Amino acid sequence: MIEHVLANGGAGGTNLDPLFDEAMFWILAVLSVSAGIAMICVRQAVHCALMLAVVMLSLAVMYAMQGAPFLAFVQVIVYTGAVLMLFLFVVMLIGVNSVESLKETIRGQRLFAALGGIGLAALLIIGIGHAAIGTAAPVTSASNTDNLTGLATLIFTTYVFPFEITSALLITAALGAMVLAHRERSGPKPTQREVARRKIESGQVQPEPPPGVYALHNAVDLPARLPDGTTTDRSVSAAIVQRDLQLGRDPQGVVAADLADEERLETEEQLEADVRGREEQ
Amino acid sequence: MSPAHYVFLAVILFVIGAVGVLVRRNAILIFMSVELMLNACNLAFVAFARMHGNLDGQVVAFFVMVVAAAEVVVGLAILMAIYRARKSASVDDASLLKY
């Protein structure tokens, strides 16, 4: 199927089966619009990013269907692969705990936003509806060359100056990101000796046990158990505890059940050992 | 499908993105909505390229993608700086200039 879509090479090329073309379009249109609506409605930032990925991948298939295989690949590699991963990185760095409150700070903001959106949609659809958008142009000699060759020719002849400017833009963006994300060190860098001394003074020399150590399950949300039998909350990521609280679960619930289980096992073993001891006597 | 269908789909996606920018208050989600709007524009460009039977629209869409990538990098770096200073990514909190 994908070869079928990608075989559609030139700019105006429509060698797709019309029925297939139509079915694909409607499936992708419904998928992308519903994912877009879900994107602006869901509360979790990570779910939002996943919805955006759905929209972007549907658009990539649409590019391929419209005779733009190069753009389809760029969409998948650059947008879905790089830009969205960058978004996810930043979400994981700063926003994964912060669920947006659904309280409106400006009264009637949602209502007016929805009204404005409907107005904008009406304006654009009526305006574009009045413009005569023709059917796809037939494949001409200018466009029936290979899509990649044609794009390369255009970029390096007609659009060579914007292309050069793009390089300046990218370098500026990289520098800007470095400058903005750079944190100035306020004090001198601690030496190895100072780090060691601070560690000894804090009373915690060894690293924290990872979650699940000595517990009955080896899961990330299960706090490790210290040698004295108590559990340590510091071994579980705060984000996981936060998530448990959000979902209305008791973060310690599994641990309590585990401890009860273990006690029961121990008493059973004890009883069995007693019975065996009596039989031997 | 005729290019008009794709253009109308692009309009709908653009409006969804615009509403997202107006409604959401987390700066990251606003950024994602802006990305959705840019993607919608790209779809329209590709549809117009197919309508005219040349590749200029695709070249423009390609440039839009490049600029969007640069914009995301700088925007997210600014967001990180704001978060580091204020411990919040909500656009409501950055209101120092108001008073």
CATH fourth-tier homologous superfamily of the domain at 1-97 in chain A: NADH-ubiquinone/plastoquinone oxidoreductase chain 6, subunit NuoJ
CATH topology value of the domain at 1-97 in chain A:
Four Helix Bundle (Hemerythrin (Met), subunit A)
Helix fraction of chain A by DSSP (H/I, runs of at least 4)? 55-70%
- Could you report the average pLDDT of chain A, rounded to the nearest whole number? 81
Q: Supply Rg of chain B.
A: 17 Å
When the domains of chain B are counted, the total is 1
Supply database-style keywords.
A: 281 residues, mainly alpha, Four Helix Bundle (Hemerythrin (Met), subunit A), two-stranded antiparallel ribbon, elongated, B: mainly alpha, 79% helix
Walk me through what this model shows:
- The complex is a heterodimer of chains A (281) and B (99).
- Chain A has helices spanning 2-6, 18-41, 45-65, 69-95, 109-130, 147-156, 160-181, 192-202, 238-246, 253-280, and strands spanning 224-225, 231-232.
- Chain A is mainly alpha-helical and 281 residues long.
- In chain A, α2 packs antiparallel against α3 (45-65) and α3 packs antiparallel against α4 (69-95).
- Chain B has one domain (3-89): Orthogonal Bundle (Helix Hairpins).
- Chain B has helices spanning 3-23, 27-52, 56-86.
Question: Short summary of the structure?
Answer:
The complex is a heterodimer of chains A (281) and B (99). Chain A has 281 residues and is an all-alpha fold.
Element layout with pairings:
The complex is a heterodimer of chains A (281) and B (99).
Chain A: H1 2-6, H2 18-41, H3 45-65, H4 69-95, H5 109-130, H6 147-156, H7 160-181, H8 192-202, E1 224-225, E2 231-232, H9 238-246, H10 253-280
Antiparallel strand pairs in A: 1-2
Helix pairs in contact in A: 2-3, 3-4
Chain B: H1 3-23, H2 27-52, H3 56-86
